Amino acid sequence: MSAPPTPAEALVAVEDVHTFYGKSHVLHGVSLCVGRGEVVGLLGRNGVGKSTTLKTIMGLLGPSRGKVLFEGQAITGLPAHKLARMGIAYVPEDRRIFKLLTVMENLRTGLDRRGVTEARKQELLDKLFAYFPRLAERRSQAGGTLSGGEQQMLAIARAMMLEPKIILLDEPTEGLMPRMVSQIKEIVEVLHRDGVAILLVEQNVPLTLEACQRVYFMEKGVVRHHALASELTVDDAVVHQYLGV
Ligand SMILES: Nc1ncnc2c1ncn2[C@@H]1O[C@H](COP(=O)(O)OP(=O)(O)OP(=O)(O)O)[C@@H](O)[C@H]1O
Ligand SMILES: [Mg+2]
């Protein structure tokens, strides 16, 4: 039960991935799996390669070795827009919402895709505004005028408009006030209840242990350890080893 899904049965599997920035070798054989509907944490100190791992899954960086599988099929080298269509959403560290577009227009960028009827679009928006009353109140406001926490919510909300099977979430609570942090946690729980898988990169260990079923620990470009979140505590020796200062 504590074992992660095998690459063949996983929703997303990363197998022995090596990624470079120019000549700089950053990922040295990363392997991890996320099962369908599973919330999985990826923890590690600054600079160990967590964001690079997400970018490699999302096709923004091409690995020199290893592969990425989605539903058992190799997706290594496919462009990000194709992966988005297949059901992989990505919310980067810098949030990247459209600052000059309104909240509604930002959300619509996630809805304007083939095969979505107007009725379905409305249904998705209604559901979303029920989850995010703050965004509903600010639907006509420009994205750039939202607070940091609201921008993070908008970034996640826009990803949800794509009806993804998995969301790659890079440090969603970074720089947010405690109240916003608990709202982000609630959103992760809502997504989990809806059956959406999440690969969550975080610095917030208590949140990660509460929101995730399993956790991977990275060190210097590789995954060194894996555990069930329920087996870990914030002051665990393992947590200290990989995250302590
Ligand atoms: N665009 C880039 N060009 C060159 N090196 C980079 C680039 N982006 C990241 N790196 C380097 O790759 C390594 C891993 O970076 P990455 O952003 O994946 O780390 P991280 O685990 O997400 O760290 P943090 O917790 O600080 O966000 C770091 O040494 C970083 O300096
Ligand atoms: Mg990072």
Description:
There is one protein chain. With 245 residues, the chain is α/β, with parallel strands linked by helices. The protein has a domain at 12-95 and 168-243: Rossmann fold, CATH 3.40.50.300. Helices cover 36% and strands 25% of the residues. It contains nine helices and ten strands. It has helices at residues 50-57, 80-86, 103-111, 118-131, 133-137, 148-161, 178-193, 205-211, 237-243, and strands spanning 12-21, 24-34, 39-43, 65-70, 73-74, 88-91, 166-170, 197-201, 214-219, 222-228. The chain has a six-stranded mixed β-sheet, sandwiched between helices. A four-stranded antiparallel β-sheet has the order 2-1-4-5, with helices on one face. Helix 3 (103-111) packs parallel to helix 6 (148-161). The protein is globular, with a radius of gyration of 18 Å. The two termini are 32 Å apart. The protein binds adenosine-5'-triphosphate and magnesium ion. Adenosine-5'-triphosphate (ATP) binds at residues 21, 24, 26, 44, 46-52. Adenosine-5'-triphosphate is lined by residues 21, 24, 26, 44, 46-52.
